[in-house]
Amino acid sequence: MQTTDKYLELFHQNREQIGKDDPLFLKALREKAIKSFQQEGFPGRKEESYKYTHLEPVFDGELSFDFQPRHIHFDDADIFRCDVPMLDSNVLTVLNGFFHQNGEGGLTRLDNGIIYGGLKEAIVQYPDLVEKYLGKNAPLKDEPFVALNTAFSQDGIFLYVPEGVQMERPVQIINLLLSDKNQMVQHRNLLVLEPHASAQVIICDHTLSPHMFLTNSVTEVYTGENADMDLLRLQNEHNNSCQVTNTWIKQESNSRCQHGTITLHGGIVRNNLRINLEGKGAETSALGLFLIDKMQHVDSYTVIEHLREHSTSNQHYKGVLDDSSTGAFNGKIHVHRDAQKTEAFQTNNNILLSDTARMHTKPRLEIYADDVKCSHGATVGQLDEEALFYLQSRGIPKDESRLMLMDAFTWDVISKIKQPSLQDRITDLVSKRLRGELSRCNNCAMHCED
Hints:
- The chain is an alpha/beta fold.
- 22% of the residues lie in helices and 38% in strands.
- The chain has one domain (2-434).
- A hairpin with a 2-residue loop joins strand 2 (90-95) and strand 3.
- It is globular.
């Protein structure tokens, strides 16, 4: 309760700054969120969903909080683009939780009706549109980190694709953390695809200074009937960071969505993913890959809700753990009574490269329909010694043989990335990460002035 009270007091002391210029619906949503957080508090060690990741001590650390954007200037000619060659994208930068575009939080509206830019500005210019979707999918009850974010977040990214429009260029959201002190950041993304629309979104998370950063973010995704969303998150923060992501996806009839998370670096990472297949014939794919060493920790918690008939889900998560790193996977497929003809498949595979690495895995099925095809499974093991011996017998050194096997192990996930240039770049980053050559996927040429 002491940590909970700390954030309650922080909210009440800074209520005016946090909710400055908020419309009435957002003020009401913040009040509802802070009350929910007060009731829930931080999850304890005995709570099953957070059994392997106790986050309250991190939130209780000495952290600074910015309720207005700081004036950090970038050289726009050398702006950070996540170093993906040949990727022609709409680049949106979020600096310490605030949208940064030439020093202003603006919006871009294309002739075909597509809107993208800062969420804070979208609330000002399109309050009715934001009100229709914001907070409607990510619940506050039993979700203390969503409630905390809803109460505190002020900015992030807004994307709206109107009915029947295909967004040709991907949206690349680059979350940058840069500060001269330990800091907590809370931002929010709202991504909306109307019926028969399509878009591709890439989220890149990076730290650019060595201080301790704590991030608690929420991304709400809405895919209308027969819409197509491809969402990929690339996490590459330093070992002195803690990141909590909460992604909530709602899919209508015959919609298609692929969500992927590639974790290359991070001290403590907790990724929460919930996908609600609310329409008949909806299809979803959830992919995950993490590569960790030293004392790093990655926890993936997923829930896929099959609510209507003829829906399909494929879930494939993989992990490579070295040194004294720890990982956790807790995945649930919930097939409701009305979701007949469901096909749902879940797999979690992990490789331990040392005797001190630990992996906890708990795939689950909860089925209330009787005409379904569902499966789940998990493996935790080491590299195949016979395959390793075979490669060595062909004259390949042992270290190179190990890298070849690990590359093949990770390719199952990487091969499903749809953007060819992004797939090539991630293949290269993963290979460097496995070789121990990567600290940040960062050729950052920005010249920053605080």
